[in-house]
Design goal:
homodimer; DNA-binding; about 40% helix; Arc Repressor Mutant, subunit A; 11 strands
Chain lengths: ~210, ~210
DNA sequence: TAGATTGTTAATCGATTAACAATC
DNA sequence: TAGATTGTTAATCGATTAACAATC
Protein backbone atom coordinates (compact mmCIF):
# COMPACT_ATOMS: atom_id res chain seq x y z
CA UNK A 1 0.00 0.00 0.00
CA UNK A 2 1.28 3.39 -0.97
CA UNK A 3 2.05 5.60 2.02
CA UNK A 4 0.05 8.76 1.86
CA UNK A 5 2.27 11.80 1.30
CA UNK A 6 2.71 14.07 4.29
CA UNK A 7 0.72 17.27 3.72
CA UNK A 8 2.75 20.34 2.86
CA UNK A 9 1.14 22.23 5.70
CA UNK A 10 2.56 19.72 8.19
CA UNK A 11 6.05 20.00 6.70
CA UNK A 12 5.72 23.76 6.99
CA UNK A 13 5.33 23.56 10.76
CA UNK A 14 8.26 21.24 11.43
CA UNK A 15 10.93 23.96 11.08
CA UNK A 16 9.08 25.98 13.72
CA UNK A 17 9.10 23.01 16.08
CA UNK A 18 12.78 22.50 15.40
CA UNK A 19 13.65 26.15 15.96
CA UNK A 20 11.76 26.19 19.25
CA UNK A 21 13.44 22.99 20.44
CA UNK A 22 16.87 24.38 19.57
CA UNK A 23 16.16 27.51 21.57
CA UNK A 24 15.09 25.34 24.51
CA UNK A 25 18.22 23.22 24.17
CA UNK A 26 20.39 26.34 24.26
CA UNK A 27 18.72 27.18 27.54
CA UNK A 28 19.79 23.80 28.87
CA UNK A 29 16.29 22.30 28.81
CA UNK A 30 15.99 18.51 28.53
CA UNK A 31 12.29 17.75 28.06
CA UNK A 32 9.15 19.48 26.82
CA UNK A 33 5.54 18.56 26.08
CA UNK A 34 3.14 19.07 23.21
CA UNK A 35 1.27 21.44 25.48
CA UNK A 36 4.28 23.63 26.19
CA UNK A 37 5.34 23.70 22.53
CA UNK A 38 1.79 24.50 21.50
CA UNK A 39 1.40 27.36 23.93
CA UNK A 40 4.66 28.86 22.79
CA UNK A 41 3.82 28.55 19.10
CA UNK A 42 0.12 29.33 19.28
CA UNK A 43 -0.79 25.85 17.99
CA UNK A 44 -2.93 23.22 19.73
CA UNK A 45 -1.15 20.42 21.57
CA UNK A 46 -3.22 17.88 19.64
CA UNK A 47 -1.95 19.25 16.36
CA UNK A 48 1.66 19.01 17.40
CA UNK A 49 1.22 15.42 18.51
CA UNK A 50 -0.57 14.58 15.30
CA UNK A 51 2.09 16.22 13.15
CA UNK A 52 4.90 14.36 14.89
CA UNK A 53 3.01 11.08 14.81
CA UNK A 54 3.16 11.18 11.02
CA UNK A 55 6.85 10.36 11.30
CA UNK A 56 7.13 8.10 14.33
CA UNK A 57 6.68 7.89 18.08
CA UNK A 58 9.08 10.36 19.62
CA UNK A 59 7.54 10.94 23.06
CA UNK A 60 6.95 9.12 26.31
CA UNK A 61 3.58 9.03 28.05
CA UNK A 62 3.61 10.95 31.29
CA UNK A 63 6.93 12.61 30.44
CA UNK A 64 6.75 14.32 27.08
CA UNK A 65 9.54 14.69 24.53
CA UNK A 66 13.27 14.51 25.08
CA UNK A 67 14.52 17.72 23.49
CA UNK A 68 17.90 16.61 22.10
CA UNK A 69 16.34 13.44 20.74
CA UNK A 70 13.47 15.27 19.04
CA UNK A 71 15.92 17.79 17.56
CA UNK A 72 17.87 14.90 16.11
CA UNK A 73 14.76 13.28 14.67
CA UNK A 74 13.34 16.48 13.17
CA UNK A 75 16.73 17.39 11.72
CA UNK A 76 16.81 14.05 9.99
CA UNK A 77 13.25 14.36 8.69
CA UNK A 78 13.96 17.83 7.34
CA UNK A 79 17.31 16.75 5.89
CA UNK A 80 19.21 19.31 7.91
CA UNK A 81 21.40 16.83 9.77
CA UNK A 82 24.02 17.97 7.28
CA UNK A 83 25.11 21.36 5.89
CA UNK A 84 23.68 22.54 2.59
CA UNK A 85 25.85 24.87 0.57
CA UNK A 86 24.01 27.75 -1.04
CA UNK A 87 24.59 30.32 -3.76
CA UNK A 88 23.41 33.91 -3.36
CA UNK A 89 22.47 35.59 -6.63
CA UNK A 90 22.64 39.37 -6.43
CA UNK A 91 25.11 41.40 -4.40
CA UNK A 92 22.89 44.34 -3.54
CA UNK A 93 22.04 45.34 0.01
CA UNK A 94 20.00 42.26 0.76
CA UNK A 95 22.40 39.84 -0.92
CA UNK A 96 25.13 41.51 1.08
CA UNK A 97 23.22 41.02 4.34
CA UNK A 98 22.47 37.38 3.55
CA UNK A 99 26.06 36.59 2.67
CA UNK A 100 27.22 37.91 6.02
CA UNK A 101 24.34 36.46 8.06
CA UNK A 102 25.63 34.27 10.89
CA UNK A 103 22.37 32.49 11.66
CA UNK A 104 22.44 29.81 8.97
CA UNK A 105 25.17 27.46 10.06
CA UNK A 106 23.43 26.08 13.18
CA UNK A 107 20.40 25.32 11.09
CA UNK A 108 21.90 23.35 8.26
CA UNK A 109 22.98 25.98 5.73
CA UNK A 110 26.09 27.79 4.57
CA UNK A 111 26.54 30.43 1.90
CA UNK A 112 29.25 29.24 -0.46
CA UNK A 113 29.30 31.76 -3.29
CA UNK A 114 27.74 35.04 -4.41
CA UNK A 115 27.18 36.34 -7.91
CA UNK A 116 26.34 39.62 -9.55
CA UNK A 117 26.30 40.85 -13.13
CA UNK A 118 27.39 44.45 -12.53
CA UNK A 119 31.05 45.02 -13.44
CA UNK A 120 31.51 47.42 -10.54
CA UNK A 121 30.48 44.71 -8.05
CA UNK A 122 32.35 41.74 -9.52
CA UNK A 123 35.58 41.11 -7.61
CA UNK A 124 34.48 43.08 -4.55
CA UNK A 125 34.72 41.35 -1.18
CA UNK A 126 31.63 40.69 0.92
CA UNK A 127 32.52 39.12 4.23
CA UNK A 128 34.68 36.16 3.31
CA UNK A 129 33.43 36.01 -0.28
CA UNK A 130 34.48 37.61 -3.54
CA UNK A 131 31.56 38.55 -5.77
CA UNK A 132 31.72 36.40 -8.87
CA UNK A 133 30.62 37.21 -12.39
CA UNK A 134 27.08 36.05 -13.08
CA UNK A 135 28.32 34.92 -16.48
CA UNK A 136 30.09 32.06 -14.71
CA UNK A 137 27.14 31.22 -12.49
CA UNK A 138 25.82 28.13 -14.23
CA UNK A 139 29.23 26.52 -14.51
CA UNK A 140 30.27 27.32 -10.96
CA UNK A 141 27.04 26.17 -9.33
CA UNK A 142 27.06 22.99 -11.33
CA UNK A 143 30.70 22.26 -10.56
CA UNK A 144 30.10 22.77 -6.83
CA UNK A 145 26.93 20.66 -6.98
CA UNK A 146 25.00 23.37 -5.19
CA UNK A 147 21.29 22.62 -4.91
CA UNK A 148 19.96 25.68 -3.08
CA UNK A 149 19.99 29.30 -4.25
CA UNK A 150 18.84 32.54 -2.69
CA UNK A 151 17.59 34.84 -5.40
CA UNK A 152 18.10 38.53 -4.68
CA UNK A 153 17.93 40.16 -8.09
CA UNK A 154 15.53 42.80 -9.44
CA UNK A 155 12.07 41.48 -10.29
CA UNK A 156 12.55 41.91 -14.03
CA UNK A 157 15.51 39.52 -14.07
CA UNK A 158 14.18 36.95 -11.63
CA UNK A 159 12.70 34.53 -14.17
CA UNK A 160 15.70 34.55 -16.50
CA UNK A 161 18.07 33.92 -13.60
CA UNK A 162 15.77 31.17 -12.32
CA UNK A 163 15.95 29.42 -15.67
CA UNK A 164 19.74 29.47 -15.42
CA UNK A 165 19.69 28.18 -11.85
CA UNK A 166 17.60 25.23 -12.91
CA UNK A 167 19.97 24.59 -15.79
CA UNK A 168 22.75 24.55 -13.20
CA UNK A 169 20.99 21.85 -11.19
CA UNK A 170 19.47 23.96 -8.41
CA UNK A 171 16.45 22.29 -6.81
CA UNK A 172 15.34 24.83 -4.18
CA UNK A 173 15.08 28.60 -4.52
CA UNK A 174 14.43 31.14 -1.81
CA UNK A 175 13.06 34.02 -3.84
CA UNK A 176 13.35 37.59 -2.55
CA UNK A 177 12.06 39.11 -5.78
CA UNK A 178 8.43 40.24 -5.70
CA UNK A 179 7.30 37.99 -8.55
CA UNK A 180 6.20 34.40 -8.98
CA UNK A 181 8.69 32.04 -10.59
CA UNK A 182 7.83 29.46 -13.18
CA UNK A 183 9.68 26.24 -12.36
CA UNK A 184 9.30 22.55 -13.14
CA UNK A 185 7.60 20.44 -10.46
CA UNK A 186 10.83 18.98 -9.05
CA UNK A 187 12.09 22.45 -8.10
CA UNK A 188 10.82 24.00 -4.85
CA UNK A 189 10.34 27.72 -4.38
CA UNK A 190 9.70 29.73 -1.22
CA UNK A 191 9.00 33.45 -1.30
CA UNK A 192 10.02 36.27 1.01
CA UNK A 193 8.38 39.59 0.21
CA UNK A 194 8.27 42.03 3.12
CA UNK A 195 5.59 44.18 1.49
CA UNK A 196 3.30 41.16 1.19
CA UNK A 197 3.78 40.42 4.88
CA UNK A 198 3.11 44.02 5.79
CA UNK A 199 -0.07 44.12 3.71
CA UNK A 200 -1.28 41.03 5.54
CA UNK A 201 -1.27 43.16 8.69
CA UNK A 202 -2.53 46.52 7.44
CA UNK A 203 -5.88 44.93 6.66
CA UNK A 204 -6.40 44.76 10.41
CA UNK A 205 -5.23 48.31 11.14
CA UNK A 206 -7.54 51.35 11.02
CA UNK B 1 -26.93 39.78 11.63
CA UNK B 2 -23.23 39.84 12.36
CA UNK B 3 -21.10 39.64 9.24
CA UNK B 4 -18.84 36.65 9.38
CA UNK B 5 -15.19 37.67 9.65
CA UNK B 6 -13.11 37.13 6.53
CA UNK B 7 -10.78 34.16 7.06
CA UNK B 8 -7.14 35.01 7.64
CA UNK B 9 -6.13 32.71 4.84
CA UNK B 10 -8.15 34.79 2.38
CA UNK B 11 -6.56 38.03 3.61
CA UNK B 12 -3.19 36.37 3.17
CA UNK B 13 -3.78 35.91 -0.56
CA UNK B 14 -4.97 39.43 -1.32
CA UNK B 15 -1.47 40.98 -1.28
CA UNK B 16 -0.41 38.42 -3.88
CA UNK B 17 -3.34 39.37 -6.09
CA UNK B 18 -2.48 43.02 -5.64
CA UNK B 19 1.19 42.52 -6.44
CA UNK B 20 0.35 40.58 -9.58
CA UNK B 21 -2.12 43.22 -10.73
CA UNK B 22 0.43 45.97 -10.15
CA UNK B 23 2.97 44.11 -12.27
CA UNK B 24 0.35 43.73 -15.00
CA UNK B 25 -0.50 47.43 -14.80
CA UNK B 26 3.17 48.35 -15.19
CA UNK B 27 3.13 46.33 -18.39
CA UNK B 28 0.25 48.46 -19.62
CA UNK B 29 -2.36 45.73 -19.24
CA UNK B 30 -5.98 46.80 -18.75
CA UNK B 31 -7.97 43.63 -17.98
CA UNK B 32 -7.36 40.16 -16.63
CA UNK B 33 -9.43 37.15 -15.61
CA UNK B 34 -9.60 34.86 -12.60
CA UNK B 35 -8.20 32.17 -14.83
CA UNK B 36 -5.14 34.18 -15.84
CA UNK B 37 -4.46 35.30 -12.30
CA UNK B 38 -4.88 31.75 -11.06
CA UNK B 39 -2.52 30.27 -13.60
CA UNK B 40 0.11 32.82 -12.76
CA UNK B 41 -0.22 32.33 -9.01
CA UNK B 42 -0.82 28.59 -8.97
CA UNK B 43 -4.29 29.05 -7.46
CA UNK B 44 -7.61 27.89 -8.91
CA UNK B 45 -9.72 30.46 -10.74
CA UNK B 46 -12.69 29.52 -8.54
CA UNK B 47 -10.75 30.37 -5.42
CA UNK B 48 -9.76 33.77 -6.70
CA UNK B 49 -13.36 34.59 -7.62
CA UNK B 50 -14.55 33.36 -4.24
CA UNK B 51 -11.92 35.36 -2.36
CA UNK B 52 -12.80 38.56 -4.21
CA UNK B 53 -16.53 37.96 -3.82
CA UNK B 54 -16.11 38.26 -0.06
CA UNK B 55 -15.61 41.98 -0.58
CA UNK B 56 -17.84 42.88 -3.49
CA UNK B 57 -18.43 42.37 -7.19
CA UNK B 58 -15.39 43.67 -9.00
CA UNK B 59 -15.64 41.87 -12.33
CA UNK B 60 -17.76 41.79 -15.45
CA UNK B 61 -19.15 38.60 -16.96
CA UNK B 62 -17.57 37.79 -20.26
CA UNK B 63 -14.80 40.35 -19.74
CA UNK B 64 -13.02 39.72 -16.46
CA UNK B 65 -11.53 42.33 -14.13
CA UNK B 66 -10.42 45.85 -14.94
CA UNK B 67 -6.89 45.94 -13.60
CA UNK B 68 -6.64 49.57 -12.39
CA UNK B 69 -10.07 49.29 -10.77
CA UNK B 70 -9.24 46.05 -8.97
CA UNK B 71 -5.92 47.51 -7.78
CA UNK B 72 -7.85 50.43 -6.35
CA UNK B 73 -10.35 48.16 -4.61
CA UNK B 74 -7.76 45.78 -3.18
CA UNK B 75 -5.62 48.70 -2.01
CA UNK B 76 -8.60 50.03 -0.14
CA UNK B 77 -9.46 46.66 1.39
CA UNK B 78 -5.88 46.15 2.53
CA UNK B 79 -5.62 49.73 3.77
CA UNK B 80 -2.70 50.51 1.51
CA UNK B 81 -4.39 53.35 -0.37
CA UNK B 82 -2.23 55.52 1.88
CA UNK B 83 1.41 55.41 3.02
CA UNK B 84 2.23 53.81 6.36
CA UNK B 85 5.31 55.12 8.11
CA UNK B 86 7.46 52.46 9.70
CA UNK B 87 10.25 52.22 12.24
CA UNK B 88 13.16 49.83 11.76
CA UNK B 89 14.63 48.51 15.00
CA UNK B 90 18.21 47.33 14.62
CA UNK B 91 20.84 48.82 12.33
CA UNK B 92 22.75 45.65 11.49
CA UNK B 93 23.14 44.33 7.95
CA UNK B 94 19.48 43.48 7.50
CA UNK B 95 18.19 46.66 9.13
CA UNK B 96 20.55 48.52 6.85
CA UNK B 97 19.21 46.76 3.77
CA UNK B 98 15.61 47.39 4.79
CA UNK B 99 16.19 51.07 5.45
CA UNK B 100 17.59 51.52 1.97
CA UNK B 101 15.09 49.26 0.20
CA UNK B 102 13.29 51.10 -2.61
CA UNK B 103 10.45 48.64 -3.06
CA UNK B 104 8.15 49.78 -0.26
CA UNK B 105 6.85 53.10 -1.43
CA UNK B 106 4.73 51.83 -4.34
CA UNK B 107 3.10 49.35 -2.03
CA UNK B 108 1.97 51.59 0.80
CA UNK B 109 5.00 51.79 3.10
CA UNK B 110 7.84 54.11 3.95
CA UNK B 111 10.65 53.73 6.46
CA UNK B 112 10.65 56.79 8.69
CA UNK B 113 13.23 56.09 11.39
CA UNK B 114 15.82 53.54 12.44
CA UNK B 115 17.07 52.71 15.93
CA UNK B 116 19.96 50.84 17.47
CA UNK B 117 21.33 50.54 20.99
CA UNK B 118 25.02 50.26 20.13
CA UNK B 119 26.89 53.54 20.74
CA UNK B 120 29.10 52.98 17.70
CA UNK B 121 26.04 52.84 15.46
CA UNK B 122 24.04 55.72 16.91
CA UNK B 123 24.43 58.86 14.81
CA UNK B 124 25.68 56.98 11.73
CA UNK B 125 23.92 57.66 8.44
CA UNK B 126 22.07 54.90 6.59
CA UNK B 127 20.69 56.13 3.30
CA UNK B 128 18.75 59.24 4.23
CA UNK B 129 18.41 58.29 7.90
CA UNK B 130 20.50 58.88 10.98
CA UNK B 131 20.50 55.91 13.37
CA UNK B 132 18.77 56.99 16.56
CA UNK B 133 19.38 55.83 20.11
CA UNK B 134 17.11 52.96 21.09
CA UNK B 135 16.72 54.68 24.46
CA UNK B 136 14.55 57.27 22.70
CA UNK B 137 12.59 54.71 20.73
CA UNK B 138 9.35 54.63 22.71
CA UNK B 139 9.05 58.41 22.83
CA UNK B 140 9.92 58.93 19.15
CA UNK B 141 7.62 56.24 17.83
CA UNK B 142 4.78 57.47 19.98
CA UNK B 143 5.33 61.10 18.98
CA UNK B 144 5.33 60.19 15.28
CA UNK B 145 2.27 57.95 15.77
CA UNK B 146 4.00 55.12 13.97
CA UNK B 147 1.98 51.90 13.99
CA UNK B 148 4.26 49.50 12.12
CA UNK B 149 7.71 48.30 13.11
CA UNK B 150 10.25 46.01 11.49
CA UNK B 151 12.15 44.15 14.16
CA UNK B 152 15.72 43.30 13.21
CA UNK B 153 17.42 42.72 16.55
CA UNK B 154 19.15 39.60 17.95
CA UNK B 155 16.75 36.88 19.09
CA UNK B 156 17.57 37.34 22.76
CA UNK B 157 16.38 40.96 22.72
CA UNK B 158 13.34 40.52 20.50
CA UNK B 159 10.74 40.11 23.24
CA UNK B 160 11.97 43.01 25.35
CA UNK B 161 12.01 45.32 22.34
CA UNK B 162 8.55 44.09 21.35
CA UNK B 163 7.21 45.03 24.77
CA UNK B 164 8.56 48.54 24.25
CA UNK B 165 7.10 48.80 20.75
CA UNK B 166 3.68 47.92 22.10
CA UNK B 167 4.10 50.49 24.83
CA UNK B 168 4.87 52.99 22.06
CA UNK B 169 1.60 52.21 20.29
CA UNK B 170 2.84 49.89 17.55
CA UNK B 171 0.11 47.60 16.23
CA UNK B 172 1.92 45.54 13.58
CA UNK B 173 5.38 43.98 13.75
CA UNK B 174 7.33 42.34 10.97
CA UNK B 175 9.68 40.12 12.94
CA UNK B 176 13.03 39.08 11.46
CA UNK B 177 14.24 37.50 14.72
CA UNK B 178 14.01 33.70 14.82
CA UNK B 179 11.71 33.57 17.85
CA UNK B 180 8.00 33.83 18.54
CA UNK B 181 6.77 37.07 20.07
CA UNK B 182 4.24 37.31 22.84
CA UNK B 183 1.82 40.14 22.04
CA UNK B 184 -1.72 41.13 23.02
CA UNK B 185 -4.46 40.15 20.55
CA UNK B 186 -4.80 43.62 19.02
CA UNK B 187 -1.18 43.52 17.81
CA UNK B 188 -0.40 41.64 14.59
CA UNK B 189 2.89 39.85 13.97
CA UNK B 190 4.33 38.38 10.81
CA UNK B 191 7.57 36.43 10.73
CA UNK B 192 10.40 36.25 8.23
CA UNK B 193 12.98 33.59 8.99
CA UNK B 194 15.02 32.49 5.97
CA UNK B 195 16.20 29.31 7.69
CA UNK B 196 12.59 28.24 8.28
CA UNK B 197 11.81 28.78 4.61
CA UNK B 198 14.89 26.85 3.56
CA UNK B 199 14.01 23.93 5.84
CA UNK B 200 10.57 23.79 4.26
CA UNK B 201 12.34 22.92 1.02
CA UNK B 202 15.13 20.60 2.19
CA UNK B 203 12.52 18.07 3.29
CA UNK B 204 11.92 17.47 -0.41
CA UNK B 205 15.60 17.28 -1.40
CA UNK B 206 17.64 14.05 -1.25
C1' DT C 1 -25.92 37.04 -31.31
C1' DA C 2 -22.30 33.67 -29.59
C1' DG C 3 -18.61 33.21 -26.59
C1' DA C 4 -16.58 34.23 -22.39
C1' DT C 5 -16.39 34.87 -17.63
C1' DT C 6 -18.40 36.28 -13.46
C1' DG C 7 -20.55 35.39 -8.67
C1' DT C 8 -22.53 31.85 -6.00
C1' DT C 9 -24.22 27.40 -4.48
C1' DA C 10 -23.67 22.79 -3.11
C1' DA C 11 -20.52 19.02 -2.87
C1' DT C 12 -16.11 17.54 -1.82
C1' DC C 13 -12.05 17.43 0.29
C1' DG C 14 -8.77 18.08 3.91
C1' DA C 15 -7.26 19.90 8.32
C1' DT C 16 -8.08 20.57 13.17
C1' DT C 17 -9.79 19.31 17.55
C1' DA C 18 -11.74 16.66 21.33
C1' DA C 19 -11.52 12.72 23.78
C1' DC C 20 -9.54 8.74 25.77
C1' DA C 21 -7.16 4.23 26.26
C1' DA C 22 -2.49 3.16 26.92
C1' DT C 23 1.37 3.64 29.66
C1' DC C 24 5.40 5.97 31.56
C1' DT D 1 0.41 3.98 43.02
C1' DA D 2 -1.42 8.55 41.12
C1' DG D 3 -0.66 11.99 37.91
C1' DA D 4 0.76 13.26 33.51
C1' DT D 5 1.11 12.98 28.75
C1' DT D 6 1.43 10.39 24.65
C1' DG D 7 -0.48 8.46 20.07
C1' DT D 8 -4.67 7.74 17.74
C1' DT D 9 -9.52 7.69 16.53
C1' DA D 10 -13.74 9.77 15.36
C1' DA D 11 -16.17 14.06 15.10
C1' DT D 12 -16.06 18.64 13.81
C1' DC D 13 -14.87 22.37 11.43
C1' DG D 14 -13.35 25.03 7.54
C1' DA D 15 -11.43 25.56 2.94
C1' DT D 16 -11.45 24.32 -1.87
C1' DT D 17 -13.53 22.97 -6.03
C1' DA D 18 -16.95 21.91 -9.55
C1' DA D 19 -20.73 23.41 -11.80
C1' DC D 20 -23.89 26.60 -13.72
C1' DA D 21 -27.29 30.39 -14.14
C1' DA D 22 -26.70 35.10 -15.05
C1' DT D 23 -25.08 38.41 -18.08
C1' DC D 24 -21.64 41.28 -20.36
Amino acid sequence: MLDKAIPDIVIGRLPLYLRTLQTMAEQGRQVTSSQELGEYLGISAAQIRKDLSQFGEFGKQGTGYNIPYLIEQLSEILNVNRTWEMAVIGAGDIGHAIARYQGFIDRGFKVKMIFDSHPEKIGKKIGEFVVQDAADMVARIRAAEIKIAMLVVPAQHAQAVTDQLIEAGVRAILNYAPVMLNVPPEVRVQHIDPAVHLQRMTYYLD
